[in-house]
């Protein structure tokens, strides 16, 4: 199943060894951005499928964005196939080799999200219930000037302190990090008339 979906370069022992070391030693908490994650034809199919579904705008003191319902409720064959890939034992074993974190096949959250001009998500840690790994697959690219970067914070006495890493969205990049009580991160405000489109959620266990 992995060969059907993923860039074959990511499936070698050499890549996993190097990326795993990078992941586990990353600061301010274990994370990685993986370029060219999916095969191009699979990514294009996901993009087209997601464009056929409604995004509801949501706003609070913490965030402003548009989001789909949970993808497993949409009865879309392309998105269902993508979720089956993420839920597979093979993918969870690959993710365990990368991160050192065990997750349980079948326990997955996935949503589509669009951030437009002035949308944002303030610092938070994602820790809830049995979330183990957070993931974000980007379907569009934004420059640093356009905003929408994933910003990672250091922790100081249980609160976000200083941004030490920024990852502007890059199409077909997968950002992954371990969810802990200090995994502080935010989506910085989009500051241009553009769209930051992604599919994200959590692998649980």
Summarize the structure.
The protein is α+β, with helices and mostly antiparallel strands and 205 residues long. The protein is built from five helices and eleven strands; from the N terminus they run ααβαββααββββββββ. It has helices at 2-5, 13-25, 40-51, 77-87, 89-99; strands at residues 31-34, 56-59, 63-67, 108-115, 120-124, 131-138, 150-156, 159-167, 174-178, 185-187, 196-204.
CATH topology: Jelly Rolls
Q: How many domains comprise the coordinates?
A: 1
Q: Please name the fourth-level CATH homologous superfamily.
A: q2cbj1_9rhob like domain
**CATH architecture verdict:** Sandwich
What is the count of β-strands? 11
State the end-to-end distance: 21 Å
What structural category arises from helix and sheet content? Answer: alpha+beta
What features would you describe in this structure?
The chain has one domain (2-204): q2cbj1_9rhob like domain (Jelly Rolls, Sandwich). The protein has five helices and eleven strands; from the N terminus they run H-H-E-H-E-E-H-H-E-E-E-E-E-E-E-E. The protein has helices at 2-5, 13-25, 40-51, 77-87, 89-99, and strands at 31-34, 56-59, 63-67, 108-115, 120-124, 131-138, 150-156, 159-167, 174-178, 185-187, 196-204. Strands 1, 2, 3, 4, 5, 6, 7, 8, 9, 10 and 11 form an eleven-stranded antiparallel beta sheet that branches. It is globular, with a radius of gyration of 16 Å.
């Amino acid at each position: 199943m992995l060969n059907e979906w993923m860039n074959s370069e990511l499936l070698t022992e050499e890549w996993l060894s190097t990326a795993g070391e990078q992941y586990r030693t990353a600061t301010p908490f274990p994370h990685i951005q993986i370029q060219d994650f999916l095969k191009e034809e699979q990514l294009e199919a996901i993009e087209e499928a997601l464009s056929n579904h409604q995004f509801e705008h949501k706003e609070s003191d913490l965030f402003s964005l548009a989001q789909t319902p949970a993808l497993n409720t949409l009865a879309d064959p392309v998105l269902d196939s993508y979720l089956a890939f993420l839920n597979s034992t093979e993918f969870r074993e690959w993710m365990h080799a990368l991160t050192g974190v065990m997750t349980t096949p079948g326990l997955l959250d996935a949503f589509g999200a669009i951030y437009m001009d002035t949308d944002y998500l303030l610092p938070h840690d994602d820790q809830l219930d049995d979330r183990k790994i957070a993931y974000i697959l980007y379907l569009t690219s934004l420059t640093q000037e356009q905003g929408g970067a994933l910003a990672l914070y250091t922790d100081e006495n249980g609160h976000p302190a200083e941004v030490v890493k920024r990852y502007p969205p890059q199409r077909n990049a997968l950002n992954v990090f371990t969810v802990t009580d200090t995994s502080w991160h935010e989506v910085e405000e989009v500051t241009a008339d553009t769209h930051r489109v992604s599919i994200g959620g959590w692998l649980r266990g």
